[in-house]
Amino acid sequence: MKNRYIKFFLGLVFVVMILTVLFSEKKASKVSLKDYKIAFNKIDGVQVGTDVLISGVKVGFVNKVSLDKNYPLVSISIDRDINLPNDSSISIQTDGLFGAKFMLIEIGGSEELMNENEFFSFYEDSILVEDLLKKIIELGEMNKNES
Predict the structure, then answer these.
(1) Half-sphere exposure of 14 (CA within 13 A, CB side)
(2) Bridge partner list, 33
């Protein structure tokens, strides 16, 4: 009987330790992040949790998507140690032809840095595959007519 109680309490302690580790990481990571905002025209495929990358390295994620005057407003959180020049740009990219969307930050060359909660001045909207195919077809038809 005593052995059952020992196993129960050891199991309980183990579960509490695992839960503590899982939840303490999320709290600590929020402190080490800075938020920025982007007002896009269209964000097809971007949602909360979408990765934010710089030069292919994940540095953050999308933490909020909302509408402001009928335009999408995206809030991102990135690592606090990363300083962004105020002429940096952000774009919505696709991993491959039909892959997942991600946001890519191109670092600018300005000496002046962006402040937390500031809006990106330079951005590029999401490109739909349908729009891309339409442009390719139009180029093909133009080349066909020239021949």
Answers:
(1) 6
(2) 79
Query: By three-state DSSP, how is residue 54 classified?
Result: strand
Of 98, 86, 53, 91, which Cα lies nearest the Cα of 74? Answer: 91
Q: How far apart are CA 136 and CA 3, in angstroms?
A: 72
Angle at 80 (CA atoms; ends 83, 92), nearest 5 degrees:
70
Q: Which of 43, 39, 45, 36 is nearest to 116 (CA)?
A: 36
- Banded pLDDT at 1 (limits 50, 70, 90): low
Q: Cβ distance 75 to 116 under 8 Å?
A: no
On average, the pLDDT of the chain sits at 85
Indicate the domain borders of the chain. 1-31, 33-146
CB 105 within 8 A of CB 59: yes
Cβ(44)–Cβ(50) below 8 Å: no
Instruction: Please name which of 52, 38, 35 lies closest in space to residue 102, comparing C-alpha atoms.
Output: 52
Half-sphere CA count of 135, side-chain side, radius 13 A: 6
pLDDT of residue 65: 93
